[in-house]
Amino acid sequence: MILDQFKLNGKVAIVTGARTGLGQGMACGLAEAGADIVAVDLNNLGDTRRMVEGLGRRFLGVEANLADVNTTADIVSRAVASLGKVDILVNNAGIIRRCDAIDFTEKDWDEVMDINLKTVFFFAQAAARQFIQQKTGGKIVNIASMLSFQGGIRVPSYTASKSGVMGLTRLLACEWAPHRINVNASAPGYMATDNTAPLRADPKRSREVLDRIPAGRWGAPDDLKGVAVFLASEASSYLNGFTIAVDGGWLAR
Hints:
The protein has about 250 residues and is α/β, with parallel strands linked by helices. It is built from eight helices and seven strands, in the order βαβαβαβαβαβαααβ. α3 (about 70-85) packs parallel to α4 (about 105-135).
């Protein structure tokens, strides 16, 4: 039955940036579909633990600074040691810096590119090595952005990094498909998260954004659950290298 293909019973999923917001929402969505969760963030994963364990799933919280790419292979190893294997990686962790391009600093460029693109690649690499070793295949879900498709303003390193995520998703899909590894991405639109707090606090900018969204509202973490489960499940087994916009119709406008 088709609904069975969406079930994640017995699967183990790593979700980065899972303390709050979109990462927490996707971690809970995967758990609702049956997956055990390895949640990664800088600190304080207690709320996510309570949500996941409240669904009857196993949970491993890993506090790590993903700016250090050497942590990625260690997190995969810890997941395997604790939960036996890894089946799914959701590369969600990301940061943003806002400043006019003419004044943008090298520090703000490097910090965003390191977390949003460099770590995404090396975490995907670590997960793929584990999938290949297990001979089970696997699912990698990268989190892109509307700015994978558009330029935006005042976020040059974020736009560059998220454009890179979409391109990297395509490349990894091409290379790893023979190993039954699906690599796809979700591109959230304007979501009510910490990253968009300055925009939502500015009445003029908030109204400009909402006027452009056909759905007429900011997105919420729950809006990413369905796409995350789809891309992590057997239902998407013939989808590879694609980026799905979850944007309330923003790109269609």
